[in-house]
Amino acid sequence: MEQRKTSWIVEGFPRTEAQAIALQKMGVIPDKFILLNQDDASTHEAVARNLSSDETKPGMSRIDDPLMRERIARNAVLEYNLQI
Question: What is the pTM of this model?
Answer without folding.
Answer: 0.59
